[in-house]
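Consider a protein example.
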Amino acid sequence: MEIRDAHFPGRAPVDAYGDGGFRFAQMSHRGSLLCVPSGIYGWNLADPSEFSLDAFATVFEEQADIEVLLIGTGTDLRPIPAELKERFREAGILADPMATGAAVRTFNVLLSENRAVAAALLAVD
């Protein structure tokens, strides 16, 4: 049996969040998500303390197509590490941390406006 990393090859709004996961494109996913121009990926992070340059490697690989990165930090707003904030600035990406619910809503609006947006969303219960 072949097990693949979760990946949806396209851009789609997030229809719902909570109970430890998300719904989008008539599918559901348990766990966190990384939504970038190349698609929506399962993201193996559960807490903002896990934010690192490696955790955002996919974002940096696609930085030419991303102007805004919304970072859903769970139920509460949590700051991102200074090193990570500086790396986003160097890449020309405006990284905006916020609670996951706010990040989902803002992502959907910017996506509907066809903006160069990405989202890193920690799952919430």
